[in-house]
Amino acid sequence: MILVGDYAAAADAFRRVLAQYPDDRSTRAHLATCLFEQGERDAAEAALRSVMRGQPQLFGRAAFVMASGSHGRFFFSQRAAAKFLGGE
Question: What's the confidence (pLDDT) of residue 59?
Fold first, then answer.
C-alpha cells in the first residue's frame, strides 16, 4: 500500500498490527512513514521517538524515515537528529 501511495490504508493496517504487537518497532517506523506522507507530522515524530526509545541501534531506521519521505524531516547533523529523536 505504501508503494502505491495509499498511505491512509497502510496506516490503518499498521495500526491494526500494532494493536496486536505494540512493541513491533519496525511496524511503528512504517506507520511513521505513512503519517509523514499524510501530513500528520506530530504523530509521525511521536511514532519515531517511540521506535528509538530504548533501542539506539534503530537510529538509522528512524533517520531514514525522516529523510526519505516527501513530507519528512532532514537533519545535516547526526547528533541533531539523535537529539530530536531522544537518542542522546
Answer: 78
